[in-house]
From TrEMBL:
Coiled coil: none
Protein name: Vacuolar protein 14 C-terminal Fig4-binding domain-containing protein
GO BP term, pick one: phosphatidylinositol biosynthetic process
Composition bias type Polar residues, residue spans: 686-697
Cell compartments where the protein resides: Endomembrane system
Region (Disordered): 674-735
Keyword match Repeat: yes
Ranges of the HEAT repeats in the UniProt entry: 92-127
Similarity-based family: Belongs to the VAC14 family.
Source organism of this protein record: Linum tenue
Length: 735
């Protein structure tokens, strides 16, 4: 301290702390001259003493004017040292940096001015302080005082110039600081950071691309900034980096892919578009590096396929196709299970397009890596079954294709049908809304006969009789009306002359017994008219209910469709198809006369001629009405067998043909129907018991509430209640 006081006159020190800038400036010039003389003399000890004096007595002084004088004095001392200033920077720079956080804005301003002058002198030698200077400038860029901001910008430009020409700058030491600052939200700081990233990236010797994963997320975060200028600067920087990635032979795609996946789910449209654009380029360029990240990338792409912004949808679809076209191998790190998990999760998406693409992925994986997919079947099977209830027909059809692909193996086919039946059982709406579509599509994809045989086998042992009846009715309607099942119908029509048709008929018969109308329809389809008549004759009062009549109405209308054209043409030969007439008249007798179905069938039967066309001959019957043939039918004469040939047959015989024992089949049908009747009675009894119990409790509560203390009042209540029973009308039931 004494050495410094001996070389700096007292008036200089006094003026250095003056409130007037001019006096402080002149005093600083005096200090510059003194230091220059000491440097020329090589007296660095006294120079250090002068710097210490300026620091301790001025820069750290509680008086603002002293601090201002100290800063201008340190800058003057550096100018005086010129080329020898580098060895004193450890003393000069820290006090100036400390002043950047001074409460007085003028002190902060002079600190910027002082460091600017110091930097001009020492240039690259002060790079060792770069991180501290950068951190200070980062804060000053958002300073509340406009003059300080302006001074900081000037200093910032000078520092950038020095860094770009220096070979001592360490990007490795700088990146951690940059990564930390990238999360700042202040717009001025963001502009400052983007500016530095752009400048450093322009320096050939600095590999900013190698450190891009460290600050990439911060740049993407700026794309949603409220300032258009910041968004534009960030986008420009990102575009430049993406171009460098395309031209670079070595890029760390993995770390950046993780960032892009997260940003693709941003709520900001511009951020999503930029992220998905980057992902698109990565999929094209990444190669094997991206294989472990395919699942994450797919998880980002699929939601974007349904984005509300068209540009995002277009890029996402293109990326999805690129990714699916890559033939990756599990041996190379391709995680089939992870991909399936993503696809399964996206099947629950609210957007149809996303669900469709998820199914395309599952289908593609099944075709390429079937064994691996089947290992994860338990994880996705339930979700695939639930997807059958999807509101979109296209989704349901794709799900069925996936199921069909899985069901190529016998064990998986059985599992599919069992689970499908279970879903129909627990979800009535699925059967009502999607049942026909599902069954028809499966018949196309998996062979109709195979599907129907398996369904029939399961329904044969179905414990829920109500469900079995509903399911059989649905299957029967599909069988009779679906164009996809035309070949199956043709095969069934050969049941009396063909072993394959007979086997199919027998496999369906057991389960079709759950529905009288289904059995009758099946018999009419396969032209077993005598058995159809026998089934109709076996029906009892309990069988003919509203549900039965509804099904009968459907059948009568179906008889008028092209599918049953052959049956209507057979009515031209009433003498040959006597049992057909008897069956149809039997159905007519079961219909209410005022119903539309009754009128339709009666009108059809009225058109039956009273003569039979057989070859070139016309055979007149014994009566003018077809039904008279049935009435005059004698069991002792020749009858028309099920296949249409005339054979000697007595009604009491075994009634079998082509290995089909019709008597046994009729007994089987009657046995199943007895089970249904018993089940119906039990349900009715259960409901009545429940109703009576609740009614009795209600009456008891009512009586308890009204019962008075005297016995005479009780008698009055009983007397008043008795007539209400006697007034019950003749149409009311007495419980």
């Amino acid at each position: 301290m004494a050495d410094a006081l001996s070389v700096i006159p007292a008036n200089v020190l006094r003026n250095l702390s003056d409130k007037l800038y001019e006096k402080r400036k002149n005093a600083a010039l005096e200090v510059e001259g003194i230091v220059k003389q000491l440097a020329a003399a090589g007296d660095h000890d006294k120079i250090s003493a002068v710097i210490n004096l300026l620091t301790s007595e001025f820069t750290y002084s509680p008086q603002a004017n002293h601090r201002k004088g100290g800063l201008i004095g340190l800058a003057a001392a550096t100018v005086g040292l010129t080329s020898e200033a580098a060895q004193h920077l450890e003393q000069i720079v820290p006090p100036v940096l400390h002043s950047f956080s001074d409460q007085d804005s003028r002190v902060r301003y002079y600190a910027c001015e002082a460091l600017y002058n110091i930097a001009k002198v020492v240039r690259g030698d002060f790079i060792v302080f770069f991180n501290q200077i950068f951190d200070a400038l980062c804060k000053l860029s958002a300073d509340s005082d406009a003059n300080v901001q302006s001074a900081a910008h000037l200093l910032d430009r000078l520092v950038k110039d020095i860094v770009t020409e220096s070979d001592q700058f360490s990007i490795e030491e700088f990146i951690p600081l940059l990564r930390e600052r990238m999360n700042v939200l202040n717009p001025y700081v963001r502009q400052f950071l983007v500016g530095w990233i752009t400048v450093l990236d322009s320096v050939p010797d600095i590999d900013m691309l190698g450190f891009l994963p460290d600050f990439l997320d911060g740049l993407f975060n700026m794309l949603s900034d409220s300032s258009h200028e910041i968004r534009q600067q960030a986008d420009s920087a990102l575009s430049e980096f993406l171009q460098e990635i395309k031209n670079s032979p070595s890029v760390d795609y993995g770390r950046m892919a993780e960032i892009l996946v997260q940003r693709a789910a941003s709520s900001d449209e511009f951020t999503r578009l930029t992220a998905i654009t980057w992902i698109n380029e990565f999929v094209k360029l990444g190669g094997d590096q991206l294989v472990p990240y395919y699942a994450d990338i797919l998880g980002a792409i699929l939601p974007c396929i349904s984005d509300k912004e068209e540009k995002i949808r277009v890029v996402a679809r293109e990326t999805n196709e690129e990714l699916r076209a890559i033939k990756a191998d599990p041996a190379e790190g391709f995680d089939v299970g992870a991909i399936l998990s993503i696809a399964r999760r996206q099947l629950s998406s609210e957007w149809e397009a996303t669900r469709i693409e998820a199914l395309h992925w599952i289908s593609a994986l099944l075709n390429r890596h079937r064994a691996e997919v089947l290992n994860f079947l338990d994880d996705i099977f339930d979700t695939l079954l639930k997807a059958l209830s999807d509101a979109s027909d296209e989704v349901v059809l794709l799900v069925l294709e996936v199921h069909a692909c899985i069901a190529k193996d016998p064990q998986h086919f059985r599992q599919l049908v069992v689970f499908l039946m279970h879903n129909f059982r627990i979800d009535n709406s699925l059967l009502e809304k999607r049942g026909a579509l599902i069954i028809r599509r499966l018949c196309v994809l998996l062979d109709a006969e195979r599907v129907y045989r398996e369904l029939s086998k399961i329904l044969e042992g179905e414990a829920d009789l109500d469900f079995a009846s509903i399911m059989v009715q649905a299957l029967n309607l599909i069988l009779l009306t679906s164009s996809e099942l035309a070949e199956l119908r043709d095969l069934l029509k050969q049941s009396l002359v063909n072993a394959a048709g007979r086997d199919l008929f027998l496999s369906l018969y057991a389960s079709w017994c759950h529905s009288p109308m289904a059995i009758i329809s099946l018999c009419l389809l396969v032209q077993m008219y005598q058995h159809a008549s026998a089934v109709i004759q076996s029906l009892v009062e309990e069988d003919i209910n509203v549900k039965f009549l509804v099904q009968l109405d459907k059948l009568i209308r179906l008889l008028e469709t092209p599918i049953f054209a052959y049956l209507r043409l057979q009515l031209l030969e009433p003498g040959r198809y006597t049992w057909l007439l008897k069956a149809l008249y039997g159905l007519l007798m079961l219909l209410p006369q005022q119903s539309a179905a009754f009128k339709i069938l009666r009108t059809r039967l009225k058109t039956v001629p009273s003569y039979s066309f057989s070859g070139d001959q016309v055979k007149w019957t014994s009566s003018g009405t077809p039904y008279s043939q049935i009435l005059h039918h004698s069991p002792s004469v020749s009858q028309i067998s099920e296949d249409g040939d005339v054979v000697g047959q007595v009604l009491g015989n075994s009634n079998s043909h082509n290995g089909i024992n019709f008597t046994s089949k009729l007994q089987q049908f009657e046995h199943v129907q007895r089970q249904h009747r018993l089940h119906t009675r039990e349900l009715a009894h259960s409901r009545n018991t429940s109703t009576n119990t609740s009614s009795a409790k209600e009456v008891q509560r009512s009586e308890d509430a009204r019962r008075p203390a005297s016995s005479s009042s009780t008698s009055t209540v009983e007397v008043n209640r008795m007539p209400s029973r006697s007034r019950k009308g003749p149409g009311q039931l007495q419980l």
